[in-house]
Amino acid sequence: MRQSQLFVRTSKTSPKDEETVNAKLLTRAGYVEKLMAGVYNYLPLGLRVLRKIEQIVREEMNAIGGQEILMAMLHPKEIWEKTGQWKKLDVLFELESRTGKEYALGQSEEEVVSPLVMKRVSTYQDLPLAAYQIHWKFRDELRSKSGLLRGREFFMKDMYSFHEDQKDFERFYEIVKQAYLKVFQRAGLVAKVTEASGGAFSEKISYEFMVLTDAGEDDILYCDTCEFCVNVEIAKQKEKDKCPKCGKGKLARATASEVGNVFDLGQKYGKDFDLKFVGRDGSREYPVMGCYGIGISRLMGVIVERFNDEKGILWPESVAPFQIHLIDLKGASAEPVYDELTKQGIEVFYDDRDASAGEKFADADLLGIPWRAVVSPKTGTKIELKNRTSEKTEEIDLEGLIKRFS
Ligand SMILES: [Zn+2]
Question: Residue 201 — pLDDT band, cuts 50, 70, 90?
Answer without folding.
Answer: very low
